[in-house]
Specification:
The structure is a homodimer. Chain A is of the alpha/beta class. Helix content of chain A is 41%, strand content 19%. Chain A has eight helices and nine strands. In chain A, strand 7, helix 7 and strand 8 form a beta-alpha-beta unit.
Chain lengths: 209, 209
């Protein structure tokens, strides 16, 4: 079933869940598809259609019970499973991401991403710590992935080595990547990669301003 | 002319420039469209087509002079103009972004984004500093935008207030936004917004893993 759902729908469900999680709600609080759509910039019919894919949560004229829908979406997205990640590259962005992703748990009760390892090849960085997580040399990756439960590798290395690092991580069993390097990386079938690049976003925006 | 170029082309040009900037090169170093395409995950014909839009930089059989093409793309993208940005919200991500964007200059010689202001409404944060940039109350935004040279607002506030903050920033003259809040924000014509959300990227990835 998972692979039958279009990526765009999953992306919207993730947005709906983030919206519902940001709302303070009690057991008797409801939200309408129009309200969700408004926050997600999606029309209400689309919201109802997306949620109907997984059964009827809504109540005619009342809307969706916020806590109930939150619970359903969490289950649908598997957002209740803890997910172990590692970060490749602890330069400025890698360090910022490490700090963000490791400290987020303190303020987000349902936050489930656990930074299990930080990797770099710079001798000046290897052996240091970020938020209590030691920075290891990349060639020690297998010691962390051996457990088999590292789901995502966050790629924050320079563009010219990103493909190489991802290839190496794949060889150690990592199947999902969030890439912050300003380069598109090729991965074999069965491996997923998503791209994100703050500076390129700013560059692109800047072109129009 | 700027608005006639498709966004996808601009995005690729930004990627090409980042790739060329990451390469150590001397005056006699050339790069082929195939090499650029390989790093950008674009086919070489597309690379030649994109670059031809702005005149012929390439030399038949030799490729493009790296320094020359870097210079041309920098000019085309206006990537040599300093660009002032402000950051809204100095929670975990806002703080990480502030640290990243303010310290980046030290290591990236051509880096041109200048963090002119950090804004929050939390009394516990207002008055503090991040990398020497003071955190001000949002209602002091006008004192920073009055100069008229703030190009981009980076939105790192909670989803439920993001639209409100962007509306306020637009009223103070900001015309470009990079949004990290997990909500799509509506902006009037003439205002550009791009979205980025690390946690949603991880959530979405996690669904498939």
């Amino acid at each position: 079933m998972r692979n039958k759902i279009p990526d765009v729908v999953i992306r919207r469900l993730v947005t709906y869940l983030r919206i519902l999680t940001d709302i303070e709600a009690g057991p008797d609080d409801y939200i309408s598809s129009a309200q969700i759509g408004d926050l997600a910039a999606v029309n209400s019919a689309q919201v109802r259609k997306d949620l109907a894919l997984f059964g009827e949560f809504g109540k005619q004229g009342v809307g969706y019970p916020i806590l109930g829908l939150r619970k359903e979406l969490t289950a649908i997205l598997g957002a209740d499973r803890e997910m172990n990640i590692v970060i490749f590259g602890v330069g400025e962005l890698g360090t910022a991401l490490a700090r963000y992703l490791t400290t987020r748990k303190e303020t987000a009760p349902n936050y489930r991403f656990v930074v299990k390892g930080l990797f770099d090849i710079d001798p000046a960085k290897v052996g240091t710590e970020i938020e209590g997580v030691p920075v290891r040399h990349l060639n020690e990756l297998e010691e962390v992935t051996a457990s088999g439960d590292i789901k995502i590798g966050v790629v924050a290395v320079p563009a010219n080595v990103a493909q190489e690092v991802v290839n190496y991580a794949i060889s150690k069993g990592i199947r999902g990547f969030l890439n912050f390097a300003p380069v598109r990386i090729k991965v074999p079938p069965g491996v997923r990669i998503q791209n994100s690049d703050v500076t390129s976003d700013l560059q692109e925006l800047g072109f129009y301003l």
